[in-house]
Design goal:
Elements: H1 8-16, E1 61-66, H2 68-72, H3 76-84, E2 87-90, H4 96-99, H5 109-121, E3 124-131, H6 138-144, E4 148-149, E5 158-166, E6 183-185, E7 188-191, E8 201-208, E9 214-223, E10 227-235, E11 238-246, E12 251-259, E13 264-270, E14 278-289, E15 293-298, E16 313-316, E17 323-324, E18 326-329, E19 336-342, E20 353-362, E21 367-376, E22 380-387, E23 393-396, E24 402-404, E25 409-416, H7 419-422, E26 427-433, E27 441-456, E28 458-459, H8 463-485, E29 491-496, H9 526-529, H10 535-547, E30 556-562, H11 572-585, E31 594-598, E32 600-604, H12 607-626, E33 630-641, H13 655-675, E34 681-686, H14 715-725
Parallel strand pairs: 1-2, 1-34, 2-3, 3-29, 29-30, 30-31, 31-33, 32-33, 33-34
Antiparallel strand pairs: 4-28, 5-14, 6-7, 7-14, 8-13, 9-12, 9-14, 10-11, 10-13, 15-27, 16-17, 16-20, 18-19, 19-27, 20-26, 21-25, 21-27, 22-23, 22-24, 22-26
Length: about 750
Amino acid sequence: MNINYKMSFVALAGLVLAGCADTDIDYVAVDKPQSIAELEYLDAYGALKDYVDRSTHPVFRLGTGVGAQDYVDGKLPFRVTNANFDMMTAGNAMKYGSIVGDNGEMNFSLVEKFVEAAKASGMEIYGHTLCWHEQQNVKYLNKLIADQEIEVDPDQKEEKIDAKKDYKNDSKFPYFVMGYEPQIINGILTVPEYPGDWYQFFVMDGLSFKEGQAYRVTARLKGSQEGELNVQLGNWGALQEAKMKIPADWEEVTIDLNPQTVETGFCVFQPGTYPGKLEIEWVQVSHLQTPVMEVGVPLIANGDADKGQSANVISRVPGSPDTPAKVVDDPAGTGKVYASSYNDSPAEAWDSQLFITSDTPLEAGTKIHVKFRYKATDARNIDTQAHGKPGDYHYWQFIGTLNATTEWQDHEYTGTISAEQAGSGGCSSIAFNLSSAPSAGTFYIDDVVFEKLVSSNTKPLTPEEKESILTAEMERWVKGMMEATAGEVKAWDVVNEAISGGPWGQRYDLQHAATTDDPSNKFFWQDYLGDNFARVPVKFARQYFAEYGGNPEELKLFINDYNLESDWDDNQKLKSLISWIEQWESDGETKIDGIGTQMHVSYHLNPATQQSKEKHIEKMFELMAATGKLVRITELDMGLVDENGNAVKTENVTLEQHKKMAEHYKWIISKYFEKVPQAQQFGICQWAQTDSPEGSGWRAGEPIGLWNTNYQRKPQYGGFADGLKGNAAAPAAAPAAAPEAAPAK
């Protein structure tokens, strides 16, 4: 009989499956439906980790994803994890955003409990993750690299009023009453007589603050006698306090408070034991700030060649593509400088050019400041032009003519970009026409400043300053994590999901804020750390793992990414990742131990699609194995996709389709063992233990688990076990036969 078993059997399985039930539900005897006979084979399987041959796979760990709090609390995932796996990965608890607060404070309490619980159970933890652009505390990180107020003499600072409240238009106390309501008499907030030493009242509400900014409160007030009151500013979660004098005649009184730690709040007066009549005409909140002045906003990176290659200093030679100008040693011994060659028989002065380019096109009316030092191997006049992009000419003699000699000279220009210089798309480049005489040679330039001038009381940090700040923050973060884990977590995703999906046809770029769909909730460390993006966390992980009790020989650091098995680009993302790893390791110091592949795969009911997917999974394992590095499937789970390319929800999956998914699990795991040499087989992690509930943030409603949501085994459990074992046979010692009325346990 060809019976179409829908996933309703999962709900039924809680009552009818025997050994395949991994919960502690009491035995319940029921009649055995016809479908159960096809599922009873799952009873014969043991725990998953028992299928790993440790003699032939000595470095292999079988892993799973688990909620750290669930594990610490000893809930069902704790028991299933310990029974079936060697290693576990916390879903979110070990990520930057879960630990670092808005004020930068780090709370590792859950991590420490997780490590202690794992140690007590004999489980290993795979750390996830040290450096990622997702699940970061974006607010705190952006605050670290925000524009900084210009430093001036405190006496030069100006007072800016943020809010002011007078009561002349009020007839009744305008705020929430806290046990006592002041009166409004002739536009004056009045406490006509002493109501008791407990009283307090709002004088302002709905205030906005800048975190880290110190504020002052000023009031025009008087009392029937001299005294003082307590002033509170902020909100109930974080209040700044100071004492304010009460004069016997009308007077403006000011107090200064500490920097705010909240964004919104109020101001409360607490007269306390002051016994007299109190009158308040107005209250204001203000702060001191640097006067607005003209400041420079950098438009290029690494104008000083000693700091490394700049993509904004470009050479153009006829017949050759534009390339970054060479960084060379100055023959005069002043350090590294930029060099660009020029022709010996030019047809035009612009046959050879050097460009200084801005990443941001500058519109007409923008004021700029340009400064650099320069020389050449022979004397020559060098004209300058305004361009859009290099080659897109706009204007002649842009920042003046350079009279180059063989000695270093300084050139400085300040001016406003005209409509002609900006052109239709904005001015992005300054061109230097080098071939102005019939001789070959080299033009040298260095210490380049190209900036726009704006009126502000803050100044952006330079790229170098941001890199330094964020390198220090990465060190603080990694050090804190290594201290909290105390050498017990010996394998890590040191960098997660670094590679983008393009450009097609060449090595893929790193992911960047400029190319993401929603940069608002992501923080791309690579935008600031550049080529050192992966080297920095690797360096600090090795340093502090050893410092806090770890054996350096045991530490394994992985670069982890998804879509490495991609068939649509012939595994180009993996090829790109391998190329990036080679680049990061080219410094001779950085060592990356392994590559992790997130296999959030699906079984495709379209045979041609499924065949293509399988082909590129095999190719992925081959490419990873060829690196000689450890290979780990870091996040394996599986959905189902119908013939039309649509994901199939759990309740619509037939028993036959579950078994196809089980076979695909077996195939994937078998190919891992076949294609990856034993010494490189670090392990496989089944990311989702159970199917995903509707409303979940991960593959909602999909059949991605080895267990259903009630922790009954599914056919996929058997396929996974078969892949580990290497064949479809049940364990040698199968449990006793189930009774006719199959119990659930």
